[in-house]
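G., before I forget:
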Amino acid sequence: MSTMIMRHLPALLIATPLFAAFLMPLVGAAGRWVRTAWVFLGAALTATVGLLLAWQVFTTGPVLYVFGAGDPTQTLPGDAAFPIRIMFAVDALSALMIVIASCSSLAITLYSLNAEARQSGLETFYAMLFLLVTGVLGMVATGDLFNFFVFLEISSLAGAALVAYRIDEGVAVEAGLKYALLSTVGALAVLIAIGILFAQYNALNIAALASRLQFTVLDKVALVLLVVPLAMKCGAVPMHFWTPDSYTTAPSSVTAFLVVSSQASLYGLFRILYTLYGSLLSWATFGWFLIILGVLSMFIGVTMAIPQKDVKRLMAYHAVSQTGYMLLGVGVGLAVLGNRAALEEFGKTAMAGGLFHIFNHAMYKGLLFLTAGAVFYRTGTRNLNKLGGLGHTMPWTMVFFMIGALAIAGVPPFNGFASKLLIYESVFRFSPFLAVVAMVVSILTLASFVKVFHSMFLGARRAEYAAAREVPAAMWVGMALLAVVVMAAGLVPRPFIDHLITPAVNALCDRAGYIATIFGG
Amino acid sequence: MMTRLLLDLPFFTVVLLVVIGLGAMVLKRNLIKILMGLSILESAVNLFLVAIGYRQDGVAPIFTNVPSLHMVLPTVQALTLTSIVIGVATSAMMLSFAMILYKKYGTVDARDIRKLKG
């Protein structure tokens, strides 16, 4: 039984949340408690399957799963020279993303059990939430380019529906429509690129395509059509304009997971650049492309964040800014990918910093959005000018906010410091100027969050928020879960880097290895 | 020459449809028209996918009682089918968004639907 489960983990990774989502309306009819139990069970099982699969990958190497084959590891059926079935190829990088999505989805589902309890239409809400989780897990696990498009669309549609979920006099729907429109146009561009690649190489499998790619003019067109939409979906400046709207209007638990879904697009971007095109690219050009996107995102994100009055909008701009660090770290790695000495000297450290920052960002940013949601839950406003004195009544929320805020600002000993330090020291050897920019952005981030902390939690008690109390238990547990991970990854970063991040960096650099896992070379 | 041109005709149509679709999305102010532009864009992509798999005088790729093995490509047709299904879901969702916006704002003019700023 247990070997059976271990063997089919990649299928269960998708089947569990999908099953939970589609039975949601039926189960919801059986009453409130049954629904709550179902949601909890679905989230816990999905996270368990995700973590088990990741554990399998980190201990025994990449896991392949061919759908519809008698033997799920049989990639080349019969006499076929190339993979014809849809397959999941879960390497260390995918496993890292699965760990992030699993932890985050569990925390946000627990949180929403209380946070959304007063809303109507909860069956649809949770069905959409599970679909969003399915989409993200599928995007990072699949080894098939068309399959990636399908999961990208699933996550975009579910995400847009969730952004618009609280209609909020139409404002949320406006943001949802914007998000859906941009996502769809982006996904259509991705689909055209997939068509172009298929027409030339008669394959949809990423490894098969990578082994055949000739880098013709059409391939370059396809590259642009893949990279631009994915850069937009991960919220990089100058295509970031949808992020503040969507992140602000979505329910906070959803925002925390939209961050992860943006990072799944970031994963797609890295996968395309490193694995699909890899050695064919001019590394310096594309490395600098990522670096410039990164620096722009970092700087413009933080400068836009500082004057914001809406706490979630402010955090959304900080999310754009933090994405810049990931692009910067991985971009520096890409720029020196051809230079083995430089890659070993600082390139891999920079990539490790970038990937570690993805992990850390999902945790502390999720935590921050959840605390903003908790404040909104008790006070009914996100306006920083109206909030104040909540430290008296919501001490735990204040502590969680402090942990998240210090982590995002890169203050030791929190996890943001661990990944930013890796980025600073490696980027400094590449270009001191970039490292200085990264540090200045961190200082501005700290300044911005000190202001937010001051205006939300400090000061005298306010009469209008006299009724505000600490959040209910499930919300507390959801936030505490993320806070513990933030603290752990900050206090003892070594095991995280050695067991989670370094394998992912090596997997990302090793294009030939990825192709070999499927062709058995 | 003439057959070559005829074979390429679907791709010219794709380009034309992409231009019309994107043009409608960028230039039109009415939300419904913007969504129509998106639909046209989707059709363009679907046509592109099907056209890739076309072979002159090819038969449908069904192996039972097949007259010849000269078939059109089935994979792209499967892709198109999936893409159509996704397109329907997208259109339905966005049109319902447009409906809600019309109820709340009393207009479907994109210039007036701008409460989100900054």
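Residues 2-519 of chain A form one domain. Chain A has one domain: 2-519.

More on Monday.
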